[in-house]
Amino acid sequence: MLKNNKRLAAAAAALFLAACSGQPSKPVIRDEVKDSGPAVPVDMQATPDPTPVREPIGKAGNKSPYTVNGVKYTVRKGVKGYREEGHASWYGTKFHGRRTANGEIYNMYAMSAAHKTLPLPSYAKVTNLDNGRSVVVRVNDRGPFVSGRIIDLSYTAAQKLGYIDKGVARVEVVALDPESLPPATQTLVAQKDVSAREALAEDASFKLPSNTFLQVGAFSDPSQADLVRGQIASVVDYPVSVSPVFNGTKTLYRVRIGPLAQQRALVAARETVEQNRLGTPMVVYD
Question: I need a labelling partner for 96 at 20 to 30 A (CA). Which of 43, 112, 137, 242 fits?
């Protein structure tokens, strides 16, 4: 009987979270979903641009042609000579920690981008035509599927280009010719020193702000929150707590995992919770 009660509670928690988080039951196009940056702005100006390398183009994310909202897109067979001017947008918390078109994990603190037709992965130099700032990004996702927009940058890349508050900017996008880049394998072989490889693994691109949590739910009943906390704690290897907050009319008891300092920890915790059908955690900052 106790086991059945726990299953019912878990199912109720999952339904509650789906209703509260607004997560759809089927995939949606990024541009149909309201997005934002972290609740407390994070200064990422010192984040280095990625080092472009010649990476193999795989099948993931490169299906061609593909159709979105009735529009057919053909993925380019190569990037040499690609140059385009248009508007850039950016995406943040809504997809932070989720998979990109080529199967990687989107990290809004990394220097990455989404493009409709460039092969994945590839590299491009993006210049803000209003202020002259330039960055190099690694393209590993698809979008933006909005007329007039040619590229969707990560939170960090957009911040470095100076248009976080505006939302969009006039940009020039120039793809970096892979023939002019060193192969990825050569770059890895050159990193023979173990400490250097470890330092690369702890690169700022994978670090999260110190106040990053995964929120599994917010409940009006503290006993229900504590039950869910116990269920989550039994399957993840990270701290799980119940944090009360007054929303102006009543007190809610938030079940949260964290704080999480590394991107890989966030992804692992989220996938574990979802695989155990205990809800769909949201990234929050406190």
Answer: 242
